[in-house]
Design goal:
With about 300 residues, the chain is α+β, with helices and mostly antiparallel strands. The chain has 2 domains: about 160 residues, Ribosomal Protein S5, domain 2 (2-Layer Sandwich); about 140 residues, Alpha-Beta Plaits, CATH 3.30.70. About 35% of the residues lie in helices and about 30% in strands. Strands 1, 2, 3, 4, 5, 6, 8 and 12 form an 8-stranded mixed β-sheet that branches. Strands 9-10-7-11 form a 4-stranded antiparallel β-sheet, with helices on one face. The protein is globular and about 55 Å long. About 45% of the residues are buried. The structure holds 4-diphosphocytidyl-2-C-methyl-D-erythritol and adenosine-5'-triphosphate (ATP). The site of 4-diphosphocytidyl-2-C-methyl-D-erythritol has 18 residues, from strand 1, strand 2 and helix 5.
Amino acid sequence: MPTYTLIAPAKINLLLEIIGDRPDGFHELVMVLQSIDLADIIELKALPGDQIQLNCSHPDVPLDSSNLAHRAATLMQTQFPDRGGVEITIQKHIPIGAGLAGGSADAAAVLVGLDLMWNLGLTQAELQTLGAALGSDIPFCVSGGTALALGRGEHLTPLPDPHQLYAVLAKYRSLSVSTPWAYKTYRQKFGDTYAKTSETQEQRRRSGPSVPLLTAINHQDQEQIPKYLYNDLERVVLLEHPQVLALREKFQQLGCLGTLMSGSGPTVFALMNSREEAQLLKTQLEVAVGDPDLDLWVTQFCCSGIQLQTT
Ligand SMILES: C[C@](O)(CO)[C@H](O)COP(=O)(O)OP(=O)(O)OC[C@H]1O[C@@H](n2ccc(N)nc2=O)[C@H](O)[C@@H]1O
Ligand SMILES: Nc1ncnc2c1ncn2[C@@H]1O[C@H](COP(=O)(O)OP(=O)(O)OP(=O)(O)O)[C@@H](O)[C@H]1O
């Protein structure tokens, strides 16, 4: 049986606005999500029966049914029974608990890979619906690129890709942030400011910080885009982790187009116009911070989600 090798890009949030609560206990969001070329590699091999075997050399990645990739395989077996088992090997490159949707990207790769392996012919929308049952970032990870995400994060509208932007990523290796903790803390601190009705939630969407960013993206006004980066979760995560706030401030001092924490963090990114400028900024931050625990990457915006590796 052939091996299916899939590339699973990470995402950064160019915008994350919290509108209010939903009946299902999640938050109503406005997000602009962007795929980047930092990716996990997922290999799928058919196994007999219905066994799911998970391999990953990264010590912090669970190998049991709590792994999102494992949960994606179980979901596919439930929806499409008697198609066989699968061996999943994850080559981890996306840092864990970083705000980059590492687990979500792996789960999205398993959905796409099993669709191909079992020759199901599912549409991207069908795969995204399956993904939404597992986690709010997974639908975007299936399709990737640049997208507006509403609802819990599963209602996606593709946007023109702001091509040729580069993101320098900075994350302390020893620091991860729990997404549930970030949202729970935000609700505790700012829940009284939430829009409570569907009308007021719609008003927030039409008048919030996403408006100028979406205008700049839709008009492909490259220079304007970085000016309108916005993330509500910074209000809890940067307060809890001052060393992450310091990274954001250092990027600003060194000079970049714009800087923001991605998702629930703690990764902070800074946008630059070229790989050379991004590489220089990475080196400058390395020297300025001088902490061996700080990991840095130079990444480029990419216009796709899960891709089958053909070579
Ligand atoms: C922070 C982001 O990564 C930004 O892209 C996403 O909003 C979170 O995506 P995710 O990690 O796939 O989130 P899920 O696994 O669906 O939910 C994890 C937890 O985050 C909180 N959560 C998530 C999404 C959302 N719209 N509202 C929430 O309050 C809930 O407490 C939930 O139990
Ligand atoms: N395939 C996976 N890769 C990494 N972490 C996983 C995976 N499956 C489950 N996890 C668990 O999920 C937790 C969050 O990891 P993940 O890297 O997805 O966070 P994240 O990038 O912040 O996600 P998001 O940006 O969607 O909030 C980890 O603590 C890990 O235990």
